[in-house]
Amino acid sequence: MGLFRRVAERRRPPAGPGGTDLLGQPTLHRRQLLGAAGAVAAASISTTRLLAPTPAPETDAEEDDDEEVEDPRSGLRRLIWSVETDAPRAALTFDDGPHPALTPRILDLLDRHGITATFMAMGHAAERYPGLMAEIVAAGHEIGHHTWHHKNLARASARETRDEIDRGVELVEEAAGRPARLFRPPQGRLSEAAVRLVARHGHDIVLWSVTRGRLSELSSRRIADHLVGSIGRGDIIDLHDGIGRGTFAPNAPFAVRLMDRRLSEVAALPEMIERVGARGIRLGTIWDLLAVRSDDGGRRGDDGASA
After folding, report:
1. Which residue, 168, 152, 191, is CA-closest to 64?
2. What is the pLDDT of residues 109-123, one digit of tens each?
3. Which residues are catalytic?
4. pTM score > 0.85 for this model?
5. Among 5-19, 75-89, 138-152, which range has the highest average pLDDT?
6. CATH (residue range 2-6+32-290)
7. Which end of the chain is more exposed for a tag (fewer CB within 10 A), N or C?
């Protein structure tokens, strides 16, 4: 566990409910890129305990794990919270979409400001709104995947995890017409099975270093203030163009609250973009940010192409 303990001391996992990280510690907003090849696969369970301490329900999980995750040597490719870089760059990302009440407005804002972003699409939403996926791709944005039904992977069986990841990426790639080489787990929660399955696809796991702030905050000005005050070089910003599990019960009270939060994020976007730009920080995609990371002189992925 030594490698992951050292990483945890330098950079906490992403924020959980109530302004704390998933370990229950105050959220920090510094940047760290963890580059890990298959050689650290044996430690992957240590990583997932840091990111998702909630144990899975007691079922026949061990049998599922043996059946669904056969090769214990398969491990994560890269787990990225943020990027060490001297370049004035940050990545703008959106989860849970596409959604007709949110995605078109975001696409219009990004187009007016000349910004490309990364959209972590939910498989169910991509299948339901292929036209919106086509618009995202046509505008030059980057595509990642965000499971099939936005399930908590820390509580899912290995079989459920396989369905969520494999079916999710299949539907996203089908709707986008291009590979989706980045994965973000719902709520940042992972399991050993999830890490290994994403690695089998050859995809990087992307988390985040900056969020909207307090979930209860609906003032677009205060959300913008929080974002502008938090964003620095190498940060990965996590916003939303969908409502996650609320997609399946849009009239439920929790889904209505989620939509209110999402609309306040969209309303905060123009001011955030302008003020961050005035500080000299350029927003872009995950691959744009990885291209300027300090540890490799700005090399892109194995094939030199954006995901």
Report:
1. 191
2. 999 999 999 999 999
3. 95, 240
4. no
5. 138-152
6. 3.20.20.370
7. N
